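#onboarding

Welcome to the new folks! Below is a worked example of what a typical request in this channel looks like: someone posts a single protein sequence, and someone else replies with the predicted structure as tokens. Don't worry about understanding the tokens yet, we'll cover that in week two.

Example request:
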Amino acid sequence: MLQFSKYQGLGNDFLIFDGRDLSEPDTAFGLTPELVARLCDRRFGVGGDGVILALPPRQGGELRMRIFNADGSEPEMCGNGIRCLARFLADNDGDGPGRRWQVETLAGRIVPELMADGGIRVDMGPPFLEPATVPTTLPLGPAGLPQGELEAAGERFTVAAAGMGNPHVVIPVTDLDAIDLERWGAALEVHPAFPARTNVHFVQLIAPDHLRMRVWERGAGPTLACGTGACATLVACHRLGLCEGRARLDLPGGPLWIEWAGDGAPVLMTGPAAVVFEGVLAPELLGLEATPPPPAILQDLSSATPEPPLEAASAPAASIDCATACVQGCVRPEACASAEARARVAALLEGRSLDELVALAAAAAAERTGRPAAGDG
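Example response:
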């Protein structure tokens, strides 16, 4: 079984696998584009916008992050993803406010920090504003970043581009709700002006320090939030004279706060991230069939002299790995090796309401993460 955690940042959700202690982490999980797509499928898999691996460092950082989109492609970086990774690290390692992580990514070294309110502030590094570094074939415009007009899906768009280690195109509009995101986002993602494809963001000015945007992510489609996209949108709009260097950006999943002091300065992103659940992947989902025990083992178990009932036994029954030996049914029902554990579970469930069971689960999660359960302040 392969253990994972699921985290979300403003509704942008990821499956996180911890491989920091593995000797061959890049191959240990057996991830392929097809498997990633299967895991991220919301009906036939776990469901998610992507998969994140926490891996040993290679270039002097504390750890390395690999991230995969829902279609199996591997982007350079993801702002919401790295906030989720930081929250995962804090929860599992017991870190407190002020903890910073040096995370290696394909976009370079990124530094998230755990804040006192539980949010994550990320130093995203300076933006890329030269066309070749985005990359895009759009020319450098008068605002000091790639600008121009593009035709896609039968429409013409006045656009600006910026890179945050991954490519973004930003389109200011007057009515965000009138945008045909499915049609226009899909067409602009694969526009020839972006040789590595691009993330697409439509943005509406609410106030000089308040923007509202919608997101089409490269390799994922419409998502509730995009951290690198919010950074690129703030940079582009600031360069275009539409907003200040610090603003709140409202995405469908909630707000992010973005700061940029100008040329050469890093973009700072602050926002939430939270655990959703933890689980293990079934072998069938990984493309592996649950392997029954060899026939010889079943024969040995079935022909063995029956042991006395559990309550009358004078010595513990021989140990059985129920997950292996009993895949086709209990092989020793008269002295089941897991009977005692199942009895404890039955006793726990008996006479308890659903609300009480939920409260027990919340308390267990709070003990693991070090955070108060709901209702504890």
